[in-house]
Amino acid sequence: MKLVTAIIKPFKLDPVRSALAEVGVTGMTLTEVRGFGRQKGHTELYRGAEYHVDFLPKIKLEIAVDSDRIEDVVEAIQASAGSGRIGDGKIFVAELDSVIRIRTGERDQDAI
Amino acid sequence: MEAIIETRYALDTFYFLVCAVLVMWMAAGFTMLEAGLVRAKNTVEILTKNVSLYSVACLMYMIIGYNLMYPAEGINSIWPGVDWLLSAADNSAEAVIASDGDVYYSSLADFMFQVVFVATAMSIVSGAVAERMKLWSFLAFAVILTGVIYPVQGYWSWGGGFLDGLGYSDYAGSGIVHMAGAAAALAGVLLVGARQGRFGPDGRPRAIPGANLPLATLGTLVLWMGWFGFNGGSELAVSSVESANNVARVFVNTNAAAAAGLVAALLLARTIFGKADLTMALNGALAGLVSITAEPLAPAPVQAALIGAVGGGLVVGSILMFDKLKIDDPVGAISVHGTCGIWGVLIVLWTNADATWGGQLAGLAVIGGFVFAASLAVWAILRATVGLRVHPDDEAAGLDRVDCGMEAYPEFSPGRSD
Description:
Chain A is α+β, with helices and mostly antiparallel strands.
């Protein structure tokens, strides 16, 4: 099993959710986060004076998937979250030791 | 004939009172503009300052200010003499009829119209010193400015003192109200200093964006509306064909100057910054209004628009200049009311043949110099005794919690951070 953590642009949430549903993802967790990458935020002007916005708002999605479906999921996110512009975000994939559904006690693949 | 005189008296008095209400509403405009341009953590405090300064101005002008500015008989052309408490006496019907039109409105209506001007001058100060000045020190200053400083210089011009004798021409108060308020504000800003973090270690200005631009926009439009009373009421009459036409012309010119000021500031901001800076556009409208206030009657509408447009351009340059000088004015009040007040007083010469260079320059020097010096002295005394500035920790926490013990938007508060 894998844990996919995707950092995406907030306005890409709906397309990503739809694309993930199409490849059979049935659940996900969302967090509103802020961060920066190689661009290190950006500078804005207010009344002629500059101010720097280091941390831009992003959405973090966490999705647990079977290992054999990981490529489908990653491709779905990349295709739907990408705008081709700076700041599209990142996808992290990590090993997932176990999953437990709290209500039934089911484990691992049964609990995803 | 008597019925006509009485009717005209009633009409002019009514017009005066309606204009007073319009100018009173400018207090709402200043309040919303300032609440929009400060950070959320200082919202309750700036609201408290605005409603309190309006009330202090009304009381002080009633107790001493009005009689200083319009004494029954001034001692000399500089010192009006001290005469406490506004009188309830008003014109009798016999006196009005006997005057054959010379006495044409209620004395108390005149007080009502004048008192809201004092409040306007004081409102200018609150925005400039926002976000770091102690509430009670500010209100103590308000007592002195509205009770003494403003009325004394007002006596010199509108009250019939020596500036009037020198031919100083200021229709509704670009100098007497707006530049005077800005001079008091500048003195306060110089002594209270800039907000924390406003200028970086390298000395460059850093932006501190306002919390609520919809409120700032509403406030500007409320001020724009109130200004029709400010300038239109300063014709002091409406009950003849001539005065009615004059009032209409003042309305048209006031509106044109505001519109042109906004467009000029918006275009200039877009050219310099590459972005349509709303706050500059709002300052531009007010700049146009201040610019036309010294002479809203004589110009043709197109001339009024040009006067306002120059004001709109000036305000952008002035704000950038004060930033370079490290003079921190969160709402641009000193630029809007001071820089454009000076411009307004000088451009009277273009359209009013009766105005003279000598008279206008004397007005600027005397009003600006006196209000600045007197204010600087009062601010300095306050700083040496009770202090002007809140503790740095309190400034970081926000004046809402420190001075007022409540927040404007508690459900959305980030807490003590920021």
